[in-house]
């Protein structure tokens, strides 16, 4: 019998697992995919929002405000890059200038520090490529950027290092109430647990339905993105948001934490909760709209595109509560934007719910909050590189030439707890295959390394998802 079962290995579930692993509890995290961070968490803008946007009084506003400042310490403990580059929400008309003033006031109500309204001259000084019609902007200095999958993988790894069991490729298919907890049926056996925390993203409604009909609905709302070559990351220095209007929030233009340029998302309600296809019309719309905020969007330097699904609830706010009449079953549902930003505060909020539901939390004496990052070979000094190669010659072999990733880094990403097991798993951990050629050159070498390290035949190595075999035949 587990004390707690967490359903879902996205950023929400992994943050809760990482916050819980400091206590003396038997915790298991269940994820249906081949890896953690493989749904909405891998496909978003990666912005740590300052928090001026959420409607005051909502859980979104409260947990965004609390979550934002938590990132510095957590990212430093986990060795995850975070850049506090600040955001600019731009205005091009007097009407939009009025909207910025309202957003500024909303931010003050939400308790957001370091917010200011700046005029066109200042905007142009700090953002030389901003659109020539921009009249002013709302500067939010506490906004930042993070790599959402790198963060989530690090959370899962640190939770696992501290005793949390992580069960991948395990799908919850049934939930029944028992006298002292819940019986969870999976596609690979059953689990008993005193508490259940459902962090199932777009599937939160279906998970609730397994126990009792849900009192909320979750609609998948798709957003497409375009990623540009690293040479273009310096086009902007801040996250550039358009002024929100009745038509929506517009699209953003931002550098990524690794130095690429990212443009998106649009917004389309889709029927299927697995539909992450991108469309020509969606991508064209993003590119055309982004050109209204920043001059010289380098369309010819696009290297890839992707889309993610927002888990949009019909309640208009995060749903984080113990389900009425089902003691010990906690929904963490409707976690759309700013869910990434709010996630550390969501984890603390859930811990308070667990305590008020009667869970006794005793701190573990040997909890280790530190996760050693994977060495970034290219960032080391010549002396450090040579020491590393002497200690482990695998660091002397560059496998991904676009991103300069060595075999030593790839092997480290595989040998860790919750380590890489697929080509995309390696890509998300060390960026091999993230560059201009998108894995065209290095993927065969990565398959060989994965096969060797996992003691599998190369034909058994997956690209990403279950059954996504790359090679066939007898190798
Ligand atoms: C286009 C877009 C842009 C965004 N931009 C930002 C941003 O810039 N900043 C920000 O703060 N937020 C942003 N967000 C929101 C943020 O991405 C989400 O709030 C966050 O990723 C949600 O994480 P999650 O763990 O709740 O869900 P998910 O990442 O979807 O994880 C849920 C997990 O549950 C698993 N699961 C589901 N059903 C089962 C089952 N039956 N058995 C086992 N496992 C199951 C899934 O496989 C999945 O891994 C954005 C979202 C989108 C879509």
Chain-wise SSE layout:
Elements: E1 2-7, H1 11-20, E2 27-30, E3 47-48, H2 59-67, H3 71-78, E4 82-83, E5 87-91, H4 94-109, E6 115-119, H5 120-126, E7 136-140, E8 144-146, H6 148-161, E9 165-167, E10 172-178, E11 181-186, E12 189-198, H7 204-211, E13 218-228, E14 239-241, E15 252-255, E16 261-264, E17 268-269, H8 280-290, E18 302-313, E19 319-322, E20 329-333, H9 339-356, H10 382-391, E21 398-400, E22 405-406, H11 407-415, H12 423-430, H13 443-454
Parallel strand pairs: 1-2, 1-12, 2-9, 5-14, 12-20
Antiparallel strand pairs: 3-8, 4-8, 5-7, 6-7, 10-11, 11-12, 13-16, 13-17, 13-18, 15-16, 19-20, 21-22
Helix pairs in contact: 1-6, 1-9, 2-9, 11-13
The structure holds flavin-adenine dinucleotide.
Question: Which terms would index this structure?
Answer:
475 residues, alpha+beta, FAD/NAD(P)-binding domain, D-Amino Acid Oxidase, Chain A, domain 2, Arc Repressor Mutant, subunit A, 3 domains, eight-stranded mixed beta sheet, five-stranded antiparallel beta sheet, 13 helices, 22 strands, globular, binds flavin-adenine dinucleotide
């Amino acid at each position: 019998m587990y004390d707690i079962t967490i359903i879902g290995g996205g950023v929400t579930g992994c943050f809760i697992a990482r916050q819980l692993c400091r206590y003396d509890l038997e915790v298991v995290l269940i994820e249906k995919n081949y890896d953690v961070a493989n749904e909405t968490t891998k496909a978003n803008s990666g912005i740590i929002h300052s928090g001026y946007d959420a409607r005051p009084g909502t859980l979104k506003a409260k947990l965004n405000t609390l979550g934002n400042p938590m990132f510095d310490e957590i990212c430093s403990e986990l060795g995850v890059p975070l850049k506090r580059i600040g955001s600019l929400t731009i205005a091009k008309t007097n009407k939009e200038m009025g909207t910025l003033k309202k957003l500024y006031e909303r931010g003050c109500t939400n308790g957001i520090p370091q917010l200011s309204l700046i005029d066109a001259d200042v905007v142009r000084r700090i953002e030389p490529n901003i659109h020539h019609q921009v009249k002013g902007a709302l500067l939010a200095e506490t906004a930042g950027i993070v790599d959402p999958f790198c963060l989530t993988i690090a959370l899962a790894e640190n939770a696992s290092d501290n005793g949390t069991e992580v069960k991948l490729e395990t799908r919850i298919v049934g939930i029944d109430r028992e006298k002292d907890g819940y019986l969870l049926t999976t596609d690979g056996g059953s689990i008993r647990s005193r508490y259940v925390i459902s962090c199932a993203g777009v599937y939160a409604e279906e998970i609730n339905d397994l126990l009792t009909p849900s009192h909320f609905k979750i609609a998948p709302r798709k957003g497409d993105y375009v990623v540009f070559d690293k040479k273009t990351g310096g086009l902007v220095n801040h996250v550039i948001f358009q002024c929100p209007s009745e038509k929506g929030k517009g699209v953003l233009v931002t550098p990524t934490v690794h130095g690429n340029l990212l443009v998106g998302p649009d917004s389309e309600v889709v029927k299927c909760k697995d539909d992450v296809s991108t469309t020509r019309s969606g991508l064209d719309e993003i590119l055309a709209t982004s050109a209204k905020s920043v001059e010289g969007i380098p369309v010819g330097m696009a290297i890839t595109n992707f889309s993610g699904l927002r888990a949009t609830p019909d309640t208009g706010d995060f749903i984080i509560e113990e389900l009425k009449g089902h003691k010990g079953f906690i929904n963490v549902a409707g976690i759309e934007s700013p869910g990434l930003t709010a996630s550390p505060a969501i984890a603390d909020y859930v811990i308070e719910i667990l305590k008020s539901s009667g869970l006794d939390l005793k701190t573990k004496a040997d909890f280790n909050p530190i996760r050693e990052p994977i060495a970034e070979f290219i960032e080391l000094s010549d002396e450090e590189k040579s020491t590393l190669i002497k200690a482990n010659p695998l660091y002397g072999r560059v496998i991904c030439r676009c991103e300069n990733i060595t075999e030593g880094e790839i092997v480290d990403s595989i040998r860790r707890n919750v380590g890489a097991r697929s080509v995309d798993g390696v890509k998300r951990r060390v960026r091999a295959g993230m560059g201009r050629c998108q894995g065209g050159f290095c993927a065969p070498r990565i398959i060989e390394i994965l096969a060797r390290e996992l003691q599998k035949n190369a034909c058994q190595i997956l690209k990403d998802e279950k059954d996504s075999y790359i090679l066939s035949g007898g190798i």
